[in-house]
Here is the input.
Amino acid sequence: MDFIQAQQHCQLQTGAELDFPFGPDYYVYKVRGKVFAILFSDATQSSINLKCDPDQAQALRDLFSAVKPGYHMNKKHWNTVVLDGSVPDNELQRQIEHSWQQVVAKLPRLQQKALVIQASVSPDE
Here is the structure.
């Protein structure tokens, strides 16, 4: 998965909002104002920061060399995945969805219900 594909998958998450609070080079995806993914790129590589269950975060770091503790994030709850093609696309998609779910699980119930309703009336269908 490359930078553009990661952007597209983040945008597919229900309620995803794109923001640029750290400047034009940092694509910050939020749900209900809470960050679930940060995509960034420099001259050498592209990466994505994703929220993750702490036990799963460490297991992913052990399994994939491209998965590292979250860059400029709480390293217990965030991973940085280098988008070098070494993590299979379906696994990276799962990690993006897991990150979204981790954030949504901490939202108030009313906001969670609103997201369920939004997903059920998606204009994509």
